[in-house]
């Protein structure tokens, strides 16, 4: 078997991520690798922390990128904050809420599940009830933007509710960061993780995370050792910390961090508010076209994420056949349904660099032709 | 604070890794991102498995790349194979043996440490004694090529010893893969992990791993759930598996996997034996020059890794000042000592693409000038 270089085609990525990557980010990615303890690299990491603080709208000192995909970012928050026996209220309204529950259990915690239908936001009143029933719960965990359904939940209200009851929050912002308002400090969120490959339009493989001083306090006062060596934030901090000499923990993914830095420079130059508005504008344009094609949204209007548009398949349409045709004839990727929505819905992403007029036009025209 | 694009200089990387990256690998890295469930990407992953099997010299079906650096590869092997209460004999002759011990403890296992001096290989007779004292030990864990000292251990003999006693082996091959002989099947090794950023000369951030059928059997018959969701190989297998539909686990680091694929194509084209010989030749050339400069090796000749040359600092030389001068004046990175060798030794890497005559020449001339 002779294997030669892999040369991928140019796809337009309008699924749930990875999203279309900024050309500047791909350029940054292939710049010469330097050492992970090189003073110039450490300077770059300091800038990266500042840029991430801007993206998260936080002053949290401990704002870094985990050297692995968003799922590892999720696990990082859980393994560092949950100790065996801890009670965690987990809101489940899609795939990623269930993954949070799995994480709690694997940390030896007790998960109290607040269930909502797929496609609906987390119910604040149900969370209130759960807190009333479990006043000893330590953490409230929820997904801000459910990538499996396209529903956004009210992170501001949930954050305030947790603070009223002296609970920490763990928040999944994988799909929200950079696409819709996310104000970590103003909303009083404690441990928030995201992914590089959604609205930041960077390559997949990194997970930005930020921890409030209250979360850091809990990490520092743990009674048990974090079960993961790789994700133990007290060890990682020695490498990312701004003061003095950096201590070696693991070899940082140097080139991927160049790419993340570049994507955040682009976000900062555009301005967060402008990026949010652009996502909204493109969503409205896409919505208009999809509705003209007779497609209807899974999520009610007030809870729709502009960057992830889940629409039901029209009657009698072959899910896989349509997606294959879009891919083969138009080099266009849209997402399949996941979990409860598998075979029933498509997920059309308008994330980061992908939230452009030309992408909307391509998607609408291609879908129109294929569905005829 | 205005932050603009980060443009690194071109360094010659002769530390303990990341190593000099092949230009073709950087090119592959920046090819257009496609979806992680795209049929073309899945085809690339199948090729990648074949290429990894060649590099590891194994027929193991379950041979993949963990979506995170080598330390996560280490943790993957331990969390999947060690259950609470399991006894693991861990050989410690440097930083990474100690990290293995940490992993055993964090998995709830009992670590029996076999201690050897830094810079010496693992003592086979000490391991025999430990096995005799602990016949109920389930796993023997050791580092094939200690990156902190440059010593290679006899993985073949240790592998056979473990099999005689019906034990599994977990082997750290982070620095050995592609640089010195590593014959996973012939040596009967069970769970072997490596890193992308050493002798493969790919960017840092991925960890190739391979599991023997015996290791898979142990994973499948676990009584407890793997403590890590992200690293749970029974879940990951659904994505990497060759048969039928791929199930989503996490978003693969698409571009980094392009790069790994390219680096392995280059290794296959060169041929493993040729790559091993090139590392040896360049090591002999470097050694000759270093000895002329009056530098002496930390490791005895018969246990020296050609790709990682640890030499003692000459009397009265300022460690950091020399390394800074090399970096600033020659754009040359050599490695500092780690752990017990901090401030006492340098580590000069000749890994993968870095094992070239021009690198040896630059290093020797620059060192000669700076040390004058």
Automatic annotation (TrEMBL), chains A, B:
Q: Which GO terms describe its molecular function?
A: alanine-glyoxylate transaminase activity; L-serine-pyruvate transaminase activity
Q: Cross-referenced Gene3D superfamilies, in alphabetical order? A: Aspartate Aminotransferase, domain 1 (3.90.1150.10), Type I PLP-dependent aspartate aminotransferase-like (Major domain) (3.40.640.10)
Q: Which GO terms describe its biological process?
A: glycine biosynthetic process, by transamination of glyoxylate
Keywords per UniProt: Aminotransferase, Pyridoxal phosphate, Pyruvate, Transferase
PROSITE patterns in the cross-refs: AA_TRANSFER_CLASS_5
Its needed co-factors are: pyridoxal 5'-phosphate
Give every Aminotransferase class V domain span.
34-338
Please state which protein family the record places this protein in: Belongs to the class-V pyridoxal-phosphate-dependent aminotransferase family.
User: What is the protein's name according to its record?
Assistant: Alanine-glyoxylate transaminase / serine-glyoxylate transaminase / serine-pyruvate transaminase
Q: Where does substrate bind?
A: 347
Q: Which SUPFAM superfamilies match?
A: PLP-dependent transferases (SSF53383)
Q: Which Pfam families match?
A: Aminotran_5
Return the PANTHER family for the record.
Answer: ALANINE--GLYOXYLATE AMINOTRANSFERASE (PTHR21152:SF40), AMINOTRANSFERASE CLASS V (PTHR21152)
Q: Which residues carry this modification: N6-(pyridoxal phosphate)lysine?
A: 198
